Amino acid sequence: MEIFEEIKRRGHEQILFNYDRASGLKAIIAIHNTTLGPALGGCRMLPYQTEEAALEDALRLSEGMTYKAAAAGLDFGGGKTVIIGDPMKDKSEALFRALGRFIETLKGRYLTGEDVGTNEEDFVWARRETRYVVGLPPAYGGSGDTGDNTARGVIQAMRAALMHRYGSPDLQGRRIAVQGLGKVGYHVARRAIEAGARVIAADINPHVVGRVASAWGIEATDPWAVVETPCDIFAPCALGNVITERTVSALQCQVVAGSANNQLADDRLADDLAARGILYAPDFIANAGGLIQVADEIRGYHEERVRHQIDGIYDVLLEIFRKADASGRSTVAVAVDEARRRLDTIQAIHRLYGS
Ligand code: NAD
User: Phi and psi at residue 107, in whole multiples of 5°?
Assistant: First the structure.
């Protein structure tokens, strides 16, 4: 990868690399855009096959955070941390305290919290070294795990898609295929069942599926078959890049709405989905619930305000679907445009009287 070319193309402000000998920490922080406020975005820990794959993930995810915050009406920018390591083997107090020191050097220009491979407990360690972490357990003054609020937003996205497609937002009797039953997918499945939907679910961890299948009457399916399951809504709630040139033609759903970041391997696949008559709820709109929660925590957490704001995802998406239909553009193109428009407007306002 030509790093500076890639940064120029995507519009990043800053990329930081940190290696800490004592703890073994290898972390990359990508700050994409701070027009609206300090960059905010979780910390992912994965055993990346290559350093390039880790950097690519940081660049793409941080860009997505800029649009997510802008579209959700937040006063934060986009950033992301990736740690190269195995969350099952490589976590330690030293590792997360070293990460905390690293983040503290940015003096609030970037704030982070849990993401795939990390959890709120990890940031209790990081918190000892920096104030700039969010999503801590309530016992440490935080708003706690973001999984359920993210799921709340995903359900709103599903309801908006059903409303747009069928004229009713009701999940009752709808068939929903959930890929991944982790911190978010678990609550998506639970909320969908509570709303009267029939849920088919898959996870690469068979214990997780077994637990919810027996407790809630969920139909379990194979992790690789779930993409091709006939259903009303396919909900990707595992990792990204699930919609590829191959899978786009295998989908047997009317709607794609889930929590995973970067569901499309390439944004152009949004046009292919539309051409197949599949309504796509852009991931960075549907999964903004967790971000809305932690952003509120920074300004003084208010649960009801957060819920209200997350429920607003329904109206935001209805508008995006309407504009996409009217313009013949994909829902992703419309959503990115709307987010960029807000960035430009706020930037212009800030220029009015200087900062
Ligand atoms: P998680 O790690 O808790 O859960 C992911 C689950 O997916 C795990 O149970 C894992 O076993 C399973 N999985 C992985 N690959 C799979 C596959 N190929 N098929 C089926 N299952 C598979 O992560 P999470 O916090 O639930 O996040 C899920 C997705 O949502 C991620 O893409 C994350 O970036 C995104 N997201 C999460 C939040 C949040 O608040 N946690 C907010 C916004 C977006």
Answer: 55, 40
Within 6 A (CB) of ligand 1 lie 115-116, 146-147, 150, 179-185, 202-205, 208, 223, 237-240, 259-261, 287, 290
Name the residue type at position 192: A
Rounded to whole angstroms, the Cα distance separating 335 from 319 reads 9
Please give the Cα distance from 223 to 182 (Å, whole number): 13
> pLDDT (tens digit, 9 = 90+) per residue, 257-285?
999 999 999 999 999 999 999 999 999 99
Q: What is the CATH number of domain 3-62+77-140?
A: 3.40.50.10860
Domains 3-62+77-140 and 147-288+314-339 share a fold: yes
Q: Characterize the bridge pairing of strands 77-84 and 39-40.
A: parallel
Q: Which residue has its alpha carbon closest to ligand 1 atom 2?
A: 116
- Binning pLDDT at 50, 70 and 90, where does residue 355 land? low
d(CA 301, CA 341): 28
Q: Which two tokens stand for residue 244?
A: 């590829």
The answer to whether 254 and 198 have CB atoms below 8 angstroms apart is no
80 in active site: yes
* Domain boundaries along the sequence of the chain: 3-62+77-140, 147-288+314-339
Strands 198-202 and 39-40: unpaired
Other C-beta atoms closer than 10 Å to the C-beta of 351 total 9
Probe target for ligand 1 pocket from 116, 122, 188, 310, with the most ligand atoms within 8 Å of CB = 116
- State the pLDDT confidence band at 1, using cuts at 50, 70 and 90: confident
Whole-number Å distance between alpha carbons of 50 and 283: 25
The atom of ligand 1 lying closest to the CA of 205 is 11
- Specify whether domain 147-288+314-339 bears CATH 3.40.50.2000: no
Cα end-to-end distance, the chain, whole Å: 36
- d(CA 297, CA 303) in angstroms, rounded, equals 9
CB under 8 Å to 194, separation ≥6 — which residues?
none
Tokens of 188: 């998506």
Q: What is the pLDDT of residues 284-299, one digit of tens each?
A: 999 999 999 999 998 8
